[in-house]
Write a structure and sequence with these properties.
Layout: H1 3-22, H2 30-49, H3 53-57, E1 60-68, E2 71-74, H4 76-88, E3 93-104, E4 107-117, E5 126-138, E6 141-151
Parallel strand pairs: 1-6
Antiparallel strand pairs: 1-2, 3-4, 4-5, 5-6
């Protein structure tokens, strides 16, 4: 099985395990959940593409977690540092696409796809993959509580 196969299964498991907690809220309409997801993704891309690693880190809850193929990071500073390293490594452009979004109460979950485009030593290269995010609302602000990303296998 490919790595990409496991992300939806993992995310479904997270959703099932958390269902009793989320069950106390009112379900969001698909349009509202998609709007929340697209707002976060637009902020992510705007900050990332401007080279603002701290801005990307600020999108996370203070105890937010980012699990990727390179490891697990917790906290906004650790996440911002990792984003800064990625930018410095020659991956200055990011596009993301929301594929699904759902929500209940103050929690939304998102499935999407991403593409990094390289420059300098990575000029002409792209890295692609999928992600799953859990977003939580605190007042009017939505933050990323959990981001799980995987890389697509290189194209041959």
């Amino acid at each position: 099985m490919t790595r990409g196969f496991w992300i939806p299964l993992t995310f479904a498991g997270v959703g099932l395990a958390a269902a009793p907690v989320f069950g106390q809220g009112t379900p969001m309409s698909p349009q509202d959940a998609t709007q929340v997801a697209n707002t976060i993704e637009n902020k992510w891309m705007t900050n990332y593409n401007a080279g603002n690693a701290a801005g990307v880190g600020a999108l996370f809850a203070p105890d937010g977690t980012f699990a990727a193929t390179t490891g697990v990071l917790s906290g906004t500073q650790a996440i911002a540092d990792a984003v800064a390293s990625r930018l410095k490594a020659g991956w200055p452009k990011l596009t993301t696409t929301v594929l699904q979004a759902h929500g209940v109460g103050d929690v939304a979950w998102v499935l999407g796809a991403y593409t990094y485009t390289g420059s300098g030593p990575n000029d002409g290269k792209q890295q692609t993959g999928n992600f799953a995010k859990v977003l939580t609302r605190n007042g009017a602000d939505w933050r990323i509580s959990l981001l799980i990303g995987n890389s697509a296998p290189p194209k041959s």
